[in-house]
Amino acid sequence: MSDEVVVKLNVNGRDHKVLVEPRKLLSDVLREDLHLTGTHVGCEHGACGACTVMVDGAAVRACLLFAVQVDGSKVVTVEGVTPTDGTLNPFQQAMQDCHGLQCGFCTPGFVVSMTSYLDDHPNPTDDDLKIALSGNLCRCTGYRGIINAARTAAGLPVPANAADGSDH
Amino acid sequence: MKPSSFNYHAPTRVEEATALLAEHGDGAKVLAGGQSLVPMLSLRLASFEHLVDLNKVDGLSAIERVNGHLRVGAIVRQAVAEHSADVAASVPLLSKALPHIGHFQIRNRGTVGGSIAHADPASELPAVALALDATIEAAGPGGTRKIAAADFFVSTWQTALADDEILSAVEFPVWGPGSGFAVEELTRRHGDFALAGAVVGVQVSGDTVTKATIGLFGVGPTPLRASAAEAALLSGADAAEAGKVAASHISPVDDIHASGAYRTQVTAVIVRRAIEAALKEARS
């Protein structure tokens, strides 16, 4: 067993210092050491996107990073993307309005990914959104609601035949 | 689903990194973006006693024009290269290949150098490096050396890098006016590794093709050059004929994703499409 190392992280605006093995993934440090369990762990090898967080402003897979690698970084998790006044951010609100979640397991990953993406790309096309969403998997297959939420948050029209899930 | 224990090293100088590799031999592995390595560690397909992280090493993150080449440092993020105006203007084929890699969250961490050093035969950037006759700069304890892309890719996940060397930069030749480039691949889902893929560069003078390069990926143990198809194109063959020539020179194997015969058939089609798109761009 290798020696534990001190890792300093600023998570959602708060400074933390943890003592962890180098092999400990950022996703596990967030959940187990900082008790921020909004970051979900699905596949644990970079395929599903449930663990997506922002590191220094960029959306990344927290399961593909060792916490020690991001020592000194600013991390934003799903707990940190909501406005402080208690409202939801535009994509979160759109997810609620468009029924973009079913079991909810994948939701934090979609929310962090699309919050980051829409901040960086305020005027995406419909195709851009579909490609941007491709890095997150929903095993309920509730993609129609999620795509409509992305369209709504981006100010794009929601096609009439896509208003519900009837054309799956 | 957790990696086995390792000792973590975060050197700040290239010399420190290569000294660590020299000291620990095949017990050490270089960590760049980690988007391929970390899953392999988590799945316990691989384990190493030492990881040498390049992310804090000075001087590996520049994109610069040097002697007719675009030099991309080892840890330039794929997302940075993808959105770089320098890359788009100087090496359009690299710009066009990058969005096919994984998803934007992967490209935010993944590096250009790491993808090439990882040498997955189904990935895009090794084929781009091979097709463009890029030069790979390797840094070792004794200094640096240059390796032609044609000599770099040895087999699946195996390169000409020695155990104590890191890939420190990749130099992509810059093509002149009248050139066009295209990337075509068949994947089950956007971002997956390709069942078969092609990268093409052409340069034209009037109706004549004066320069042609075709790189294939996903259809062999390394990225491949379709040299016979390049020659056919230079001799006046059309895109469909060149595609058939490219397919006739490969022998991809069957695996769980697709049969070799299917990959061969697909290769003829995607090479044709890539040539058509590249020619259209070159003539526009």
Automatic annotation (TrEMBL), chain A:
Keywords from the named record: 2Fe-2S, Iron, Iron-sulfur, Metal-binding, Oxidoreductase
Coiled-coil segments: none
Residues annotated as domain 2Fe-2S ferredoxin-type: 5-81
Record-linked InterPro entries: 2Fe-2S-bd, 2Fe-2S-bd_dom_sf, 2Fe-2S_ferredoxin-like_sf, 2Fe-2S_ferredoxin-type, 2Fe2S_fd_BS, Beta-grasp_dom_sf, Diverse_Oxidoreductases
Pfam families listed in its UniProt record: Fer2 (PF00111), Fer2_2 (PF01799)
Single annotated GO MF: metal ion binding
Name under which the protein is recorded: Unannotated protein
Organism whose genome encodes this protein: freshwater metagenome
UniProtKB/TrEMBL annotation, chain B:
Annotated GO MF terms: FAD binding; oxidoreductase activity
Family matches, as InterPro entries: CO_DH_flav_C, CO_DH_flav_C_dom_sf, Diverse_Substr_Oxidored, FAD-bd_PCMH, FAD-bd_PCMH-like_sf, FAD-bd_PCMH_sub1, FAD-bd_PCMH_sub2, Mopterin_DH_FAD-bd
The keyword Oxidoreductase belongs to this UniProt entry's keyword annotation: yes
Pfam family name, one: FAD_binding_5
Cited Gene3D superfamilies: 3.30.465.10, CO dehydrogenase flavoprotein, C-terminal domain (3.30.390.50), Uridine Diphospho-n-acetylenolpyruvylglucosamine Reductase, domain 2 (3.30.43.10)
Domain FAD-binding PCMH-type stretches: 1-177
Protein keywords: FAD, Flavoprotein, Oxidoreductase
Record's protein name: Unannotated protein
Organism in which the protein naturally occurs: freshwater metagenome
